[in-house]
Amino acid sequence: MSRTCLLIGAPVDSGKDRRGCIMGPDAYRTAGLAKTLNDLGQDVRDLGNLHPAPIRDVTGPAHLKALPQTVAWCEALTDAARDAMGQGLPIFLGGDHSLSMGSVAGVAAHASAVGRPQFVLWLDAHSDFHTPRTTTSGNLHGTPVAYLTGQPGFDAFPPVPAPVPAENVCIMGLRSVDPEERAALADLPVDLHDMRAIDETGFATPLSAFLARVAAADGLLHVSLDVDFLDPSIAPAVGTTVPGGATFREAHLVMEMLHESGLVTSLDLVELNPFLDERGRTASLMVDLTASLMGRKVFDRPTRSFDGRVAA
Predict the structure, then answer these.
(1) Residues 6 or more apart from 55 whose CB is under 8 A from it?
(2) Strand pairing of 4-10 and 89-94?
């Protein structure tokens, strides 16, 4: 099925200490994302890179890093995401994961306007459920799920237009969750799957159950794919590597199942730090995973040599 894919660069680099995600959008372009999607029969429109909204004088806990800049990105991305949903399937090219505060807020606002529930599949080693009050690092890329579900403590940020109900959020790939996040999540019906559970059941069973709920509710589905969802042995270009992540085949299975569901309406590709990559291998893998999400089958995937180049 041909769709209009809107590539929206979000070079957000304010949500954490380690710099480099600002180069992410152009790394995806260099890795051939637009051509890959075109080759799959998709109509691709590259809308270029967004710019943050004007920076305002905002206040919050003193240890927060780059709070005004992250608020400005949230405002710009919320508007861009809301507008893009009426034109096609937006793919937000990140950028650190704080960009999802805006991308999800915007797509959820659109869902509310058209009278459909918003669901979120969060593919990540971390739950990202800190608030500005609970984060000890001050890095706001660890807060978006708490923000988009309407948790308190985000006074400096614009109110979420349509908070996503906690029961509509599924987080898969967890293997690094702080005590404060565990305590907050214990009281909420977020659908959580750490890698211990995945080792026992695989991805297919819990993902099928979640997708069935989305379909039964006639929901819109936003997928947020963090590079650290993947095992660092295959995806080293991220500043928050955690061993034990999804393998190559597990990740492609998730993407292929999402394609077959026909439910995905928006996508984040986040936390790619090209400065940490090895000859573009992580960017190329993320492009390949996006291709699987958009319909490429395993027997269509080009064979690559050890250094990431297509074999002759």
Answers:
(1) 68, 69, 71, 72
(2) parallel
Per-residue CA distances from 142 to 82, 146, 166, 174, 256 (Å):
23, 9, 17, 13, 27
What is the DSSP-derived secondary structure letter of residue 170? E
Domain count, the chain: 1
Bridge partner residues of 49 (DSSP):
9
Closest CA to 284 of 19, 3, 35: 35
Residue span of the structural domain in which 280 resides? 4-300
Q: Which residues are catalytic?
A: 97, 124, 126, 128, 141, 226, 228, 271
Contact 165, 149 (CB under 8 A): yes
Contacts of 30 (CB under 8 A, 6+ apart): 280, 283
* Tens-digit pLDDT profile for residues 238-257: 988 899 999 999 999 999 99
Helix/strand/coil for 180:
helix
- The string of DSSP letters for 48-111 reads EE--PPPPP-----TT-SSHHHHHHHHHHHHHHHHHHTTTSEEEEEES-GGGHHHHHHHHHHHH
What CATH number is associated with residue 125?
Answer: 3.40.800.10
Query: CA 36, CA 286: separation in Å to the nearest integer?
Result: 11
Give the DSSP H or E segment for 47: strand 43-49
Tell me whether residue 310 is in a domain: no
pLDDT tens for 15-67 read 887 889 999 999 999 999 999 999 999 999 999 999 999 999 998 998 999 99
